[in-house]
Amino acid sequence: MRSVLDVHVDDDTPQTSSSCSESKVARVRQMCDDIQSTLPDNYVTTEVRARLQRLGALQPLNTSLRREIDHMQTVISTVSQSITSLRQFADGQSVYYDELMELFDAVHDARVPSAWTKVYSQLVKSSRYCSCKNRNNRHSRCIVKI
Fold this sequence. Notes:
Elements: H1 2-12, H2 16-19, H3 22-38, H4 45-55, H5 60-90, H6 98-108, H7 114-126, H8 132-145
């Protein structure tokens, strides 16, 4: 019984070198770099607030725009934090946990991680369907023009 338990504990103990081949870690690291390079910058809250005030913050369209920008910032922050954690894990600087392994496997398999899907679905529910990148570009242009 003790040997079966030891084998089970050894199998559950995550170690980058044994549970993931070096090429898998390298691929995930490269995908993280690619995602990070295409991720838009965070919105500066004080700038957004000031520019919306100039337009009249309580007008319905501006309220809707503010809500959209808040949702978009949530998506950007979630993806950025996940990618940072994943890169630290791939470099051996982070402690293993279940959500991180799910994220690692999803990025390696070119799937959208469940945490990102959850956050993005909130964004999609709030308005029309279109790509996240297009929406961010549109919001950025709107804020810059103000």
